[in-house]
Design goal:
This protein is of the alpha/beta class. It is built from six helices and five strands, in the order E-H-E-H-E-H-E-H-H-E-H. The chain has a five-stranded parallel beta sheet with strand order 2-1-3-4-5, with helices on both faces.
Length: 178
């Protein structure tokens, strides 16, 4: 059975990432996958670690999220990078749910990152988007492999040809995520 977990890392429930996630989900369901979703910004938890060397007990929302992560074969994160950073709550989610030493071996992942205009310009210069910290120091460190990435330039509207092209790619990614 193919189990897909979609992580929504945006601060809002509408927007281009929601369209991309919907297309990914449609592609996955088309090939028989079971899909669950988590809207990280709606979870109730303390995003900061309490103590440097101690694991803070997980709040109910994070316990539920941890069960969904264990259930999934594949995890896909949709997030927007604004001013070359991700939201603090998204970072805290990964800090709390993917502590050092945790193993999620046998899972794969994809990070889909839509950059704002300034981040897109910088990415074109150095090709080092912020999500590499999530890829390398969180997911890969927890033995999630492979972790694929997509960097999408600034999308002005979900109605333009650029956004439609990426929606079609997201559907194709969903169809072949495993």
């Amino acid at each position: 059975m193919k189990n897909l977990l979609i992580l929504h890392g945006d601060t809002e429930r509408s927007g281009i990432n929601q369209e991309f996630a919907k297309a990914y989900r449609q592609g996955a369901e088309k090939v028989g996958a079971t899909v669950k979703e988590i809207h990280i910004m709606e979870l109730k938890f303390l995003p900061n670690k309490q103590f440097n060397n101690q694991i803070t007990p997980l709040e109910p929302d994070l316990l539920d999220a941890a069960e969904k992560v264990k259930w999934a074969n594949h995890i896909v994160l949709f997030c927007t990078v604004d001013r070359n950073s991700i939201p603090a709550k998204l970072s805290g989610f990964f800090d709390r749910l993917f502590p050092s030493g945790q193993s999620y071996a046998g899972k794969s992942a994809r990070i889909v990152s839509v950059l704002d205009e300034a981040s897109w310009r910088e990415w074109q210069l150095n090709k080092k988007p912020t999500y590499h910290a999530i890829k390398r120091t969180v997911l890969e460190r927890c033995r999630v492999n492979p972790v694929r990435t997509c960097t999408i330039g600034y999308v002005h509207s979900p109605e333009n040809d650029y956004a439609k092209k990426w929606s079609m790619k997201m559907m194709a990614f969903g169809e072949k995520f495993m």
